[in-house]
Design brief:
Number of domains: 2
Number of helices: 11
Shape: globular
Order of helices and strands: EHEEHHHEEHHEHHHEHEHE
Radius of gyration: 24 Å
Structural class: alpha+beta
Helix content: 40-55%
Strand content: 15-25%
Length: about 260
C-alpha cells in the first residue's frame, strides 16, 4: 500500500516570480524531495510533498524526540529558507508546518492572508540578528575547577574553608546581579536600534557548550541599511560591558514572522 503524503511548508511570499527556477529544481527539502509552489489569494507558499509515515502527526511526535533526526531536519528546513530568502521576501514558517494536502495550504493562505501580508510588510528590507551575552566565569570558580590550583593551595581549617566559601558565594551573587544589569543595559541599547526585538529564554550550558551563564538571548529586526552600524554597536558594547557577546546573522526573520506561528 503506497504511503500517504502531506505538504510541508517552508515559507510564504507575495513575489514568487523572484524565485529562481533552478533553486526549486536543485533544492531538496526535509524529505529529500523537490520543492513546489502553492498559490492562493495573491500569496505563494513554498512547499514539499512528504511522507506522513515520517512527517505525519504521530510520526512527528516520535521523531522530534530523536536529537539526530531533529538536527538533520532542522538543518534541511533552514537551508531551504535561507536559500529562498536570499532571492525573495519570505515569511519563514516554523519547523514541522505540515498540511494534509496542497488544498489545505491554499485554504490557509486565503484565511491568514492579512496576517501574512502584514508580516511581509513588517520584515521587508530587514533581517534578524541574534545576540547572546554570557557572564564571565568568576575567578574563584575557575580556581575551584583547576586541579593544579587546588594542589598549590595551602591546607586550610574547616572554619577558614567555610569563610572562604561564604565570601565566594557572596561575590558570585553580586557578580550575577551585575551581569544581569549589564545584560539589561545591552538589550535596551540594541533594541533602540531595531525595528523590533524579541527576548528568548536563555539556553542551558548543555546547549551552549560553555559553563558561562547566558544572561541574554535576544533577536533584533534590523533594517538592511543599518546592519553595519548595528554590528559596530555590538562591538562597542562588548568592549565596555563585563559580558562576552556572540553576534549571529543576518538571518531570515524567524523570530518576527508572527503570522507563521499558528497557521496549522
Amino acid at each position: 500500500m503506497p504511503s500517504q503524503t502531506g505538504t510541508w511548508v517552508y515559507g510564504v511570499t507575495d513575489s514568487p516570480a523572484a524565485i529562481r527556477r533552478d533553486s526549486l529544481d536543485q533544492l531538496t527539502g526535509v524529505g529529500g524531495g523537490n520543492l513546489h509552489l502553492v498559490a492562493a489569494g495573491g500569496l505563494t507558499a513554498v512547499a514539499e510533498t512528504v511522507s506522513l509515515d515520517e512527517f505525519g502527526e504521530t510520526a512527528l511526535r516520535r521523531n522530534l524526540e530523536e536529537l539526530s533526526w531533529l538536527e538533520a531536519t532542522a538543518r534541511a528546513h533552514h537551508r531551504v529558507i535561507n536559500t529562498l530568502a536570499s532571492q525573495v521576501q519570505l515569511v519563514p514558517l516554523r519547523l514541522a508546518t505540515v498540511y494534509r494536502e496542497d488544498g489545505n495550504v491554499r485554504a490557509m493562505l486565503a484565511e491568514h492572508g492579512p496576517q501574512l501580508r502584514a508580516a511581509l510588510r513588517r520584515t521587508a528590507s530587514r533581517a534578524e540578528w541574534g545576540v547572546k551575552a554570557y557572564a564571565d566565569e568568576p575567578a574563584a570558580a575557575r580556581a575551584e575547577a583547576d586541579p593544579a590550583g587546588r594542589r598549590k593551595a595551602a591546607p586550610e581549617s574547616g572554619a577558614a574553608y567555610l569563610r572562604r566559601r561564604r565570601d565566594e558565594l557572596a561575590a558570585s551573587q553580586q557578580g550575577r546581579q551585575e551581569a544581569l544589569a549589564s545584560a539589561q543595559q545591552l538589550h535596551a541599547a540594541l533594541a533602540r536600534m531595531a525595528a523590533d526585538a524579541r527576548l528568548h529564554p536563555p539556553q542551558s550550558p548543555e546547549l551552549t557548550g560553555t559553563k558561562s551563564a547566558m544572561m541574554l538571548n535576544a533577536a533584533y529586526l534590523i533594517d538592511d541599511q543599518h546592519a553595519a552600524g548595528f554590528r559596530e554597536a555590538v562591538d562597542d558594547l562588548s568592549s565596555r560591558l563585563p559580558l562576552r557577546l556572540e553576534l549571529t546573522g543576518p538571518w531570515p526573520p524567524y523570530s518576527f514572522a508572527d503570522a507563521g506561528q499558528d497557521l496549522q
